[in-house]
Write a structure and sequence with these properties.
Layout lengths: L1 E4 L5 H12 L1 H7 L4 H12 L11 E6 L2 E10 L3 H15 L4 H12 L9 E8 L8 H15 L4 E6 L4 H9 L3 E8 L2 E9 L2 H5 L1
Parallel strand pairs: 4-5
Antiparallel strand pairs: 1-2, 2-3, 3-4, 5-7, 6-7
Length: about 200
């Protein structure tokens, strides 16, 4: 298994894995209950540079049978400019009403999931058949190295309180719960960790 930067050709698997990680939020983003339509919206942005779903901010784990998982991460202070193309382009491909877009999507996109001085892990997803083999561990380590490369000494992410397996994984990697936040109509735990840049690059 290798971990590499995502490529535009990874669009289908990336969209599938992001849907898996985001769950209902992916459907809210697309304004559709149809998985194919939702994936189409995510693929559209994945293939483009300089947005918060772009291949530029994704690393994938790949084995002999194809992609097994991914991690989407970026400096949180990038989000205003990374979200701008989504806010501008999404209405043209949004599957529900523009009222829904304004009332559901815009507040979700503008939720402050992290702080400006943090490197943010937006999504970690591994296909079920590959779980339990340390792939998520490897992906989180890559994000840690990238955070240090950018010069950050803090990382953060959010996770559903009921996702005990993920919470355990993140705690193993040094994340601690600092509070709760609401995204859409769901409650999430906000988790943060401090990192030593020199150790992260070692």
């Amino acid at each position: 298994m290798i971990i590499r930067r995502a490529k535009i050709d990874d669009a289908y698997e990336a969209a599938e894995l992001i849907c898996m990680a985001w769950q209902e939020s992916a459907y809210v983003l697309a304004g559709s209950s149809n998985k194919s339509e939702v994936m189409g919206v995510i693929e559209n942005f994945f293939k483009q540079p300089k947005n918060s779903l772009s291949y530029q901010y994704i690393d994938v784990a790949e084995g002999k049978n194809g992609i097994a998982g991914l991690i989407l991460s970026f400096p949180w202070d990038f989000t205003p400019r990374l979200n701008k193309p989504i806010i501008e382009e999404l209405p043209d491909i949004y599957r529900s009403s523009q009222l829904d877009f304004k009332e559901k999507v815009i507040p979700m996109i503008k939720t402050k999931e992290a702080k400006p001085d943090e490197y943010y892990v937006d999504s970690v997803a591994v296909y079920p058949k590959y779980r339990g083999h340390g792939i998520a561990d490897g992906l989180l380590k890559v994000a840690k190295i990238k955070s240090a490369t950018y010069g950050f000494d803090k990382m953060s992410l959010i996770v559903k309180p009921e996702n005990k397996r993920a919470i355990s994984l993140y705690k193993k990697h040094g994340y601690t719960v600092r509070g709760k936040l609401t995204l859409g109509d769901k409650i999430y735990l906000s988790m943060v960790k401090s990192i030593d840049s020199e150790k992260a690059l070692a």
